[in-house]
């Protein structure tokens, strides 16, 4: 039963804001293959390595944990969580992305739901831990989204949110591409700083960043830059992560 793939459409007509978010989610429908391919490039593999390392070090998933990945996309980071024998639940606003995740993680204890993180179809205190990786930047009401993540997390559980850092050179490059009309996707992105991310909740969290190198850096050089950024505990890495404990 745990290996079953379940698809749930919970946003009904007249649902208002959640329905609007679901409509916006269609902009990701053509991205599954492109998104996965990016992580097979030399620099993409390096990005994934460092992002995975940071997520797992803060989240600390363990066997039997019931973990929600809100905005799971194609399941790239969900797979890392399932390596630790956790029970995975993925929700996303794009059916093609979610379908790719379900296919990729077939045979694992992974369940899927089609929906938006500003209106999660789960009861309070459902999950041991909740993550959201690079999804918050596409949601204008970030506070509401984070409140939902807290709502469905058990007391004492962890909430980890990763997003695109406004202080990073990557953000500047993406803004420039959007201005030139070279990326419709990044026209919709809301970049947040470490302070802005932490301010979405009244609780202070652990704030870390990764990916201090640039997209066009050679992998060997990028590794040196990343080590320097880590040693200096810089807050300008492109990958911004906050991890909170629910009291």
Task: Please give a structural write-up.
The protein is α/β, with parallel strands linked by helices and 247 residues long. The chain has a single domain (17-245), classed as 3-Layer(aba) Sandwich (Rossmann fold). Helix content is 36%, strand content 19%. The protein is built from 9 helices and 7 strands, in the order H-H-H-E-H-E-H-E-E-H-E-H-H-E-H-E. The protein has helices at residues 17-24, 32-38, 42-59, 76-82, 95-104, 142-151, 169-179, 194-198, 219-231, and strands at 66-70, 87-92, 110-114, 127-133, 153-164, 206-210, 239-245. A 7-stranded mixed beta sheet has the order 3-2-1-4-5-7-6. The longest helix has 18 residues, at 42-59. The protein is globular. Mean pLDDT is 88; it is low at 1-16.
């Amino acid at each position: 039963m745990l290996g079953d793939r379940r698809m749930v459409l919970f946003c009904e007509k007249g649902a208002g804001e959640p329905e609007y978010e679901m409509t916006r989610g269609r902009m990701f429908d053509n991205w599954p293959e492109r998104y996965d391919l990016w992580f097979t490039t030399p620099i993409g593999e390096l990005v994934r390595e460092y992002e995975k390392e940071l997520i797992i070090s803060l989240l600390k998933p363990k066997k039997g944990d019931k973990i929600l990945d809100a905005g799971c996309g194609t399941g790239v980071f969900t797979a890392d969580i399932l390596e630790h024998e956790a029970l995975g639940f993925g929700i996303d606003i794009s059916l093609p992305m979610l379908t790719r995740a379900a296919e990729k993680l077939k045979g694992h204890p992974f369940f899927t739901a089609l929906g938006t993180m500003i209106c999660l179809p789960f009861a309070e205190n459902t999950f041991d831990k909740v993550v959201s990786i690079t999804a918050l930047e596409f949601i204008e009401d970030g506070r509401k989204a984070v409140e939902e993540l807290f709502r469905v997390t058990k007391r004492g559980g962890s909430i980890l949110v990763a997003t695109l850092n406004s202080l990073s050179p990557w953000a500047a490059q993406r803004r420039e591409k959007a201005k030139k009309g070279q990326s419709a996707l990044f026209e919709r992105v809301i970049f947040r700083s470490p302070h802005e991310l932490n301010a979405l909740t009244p609780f202070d969290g652990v704030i870390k960043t990764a990916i201090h190198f640039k997209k066009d850096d050679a992998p060997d050089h990028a590794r040196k830059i990343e080590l320097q950024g880590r040693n200096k505990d810089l807050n300008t890495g492109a990958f911004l992560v906050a991890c909170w404990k629910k009291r």
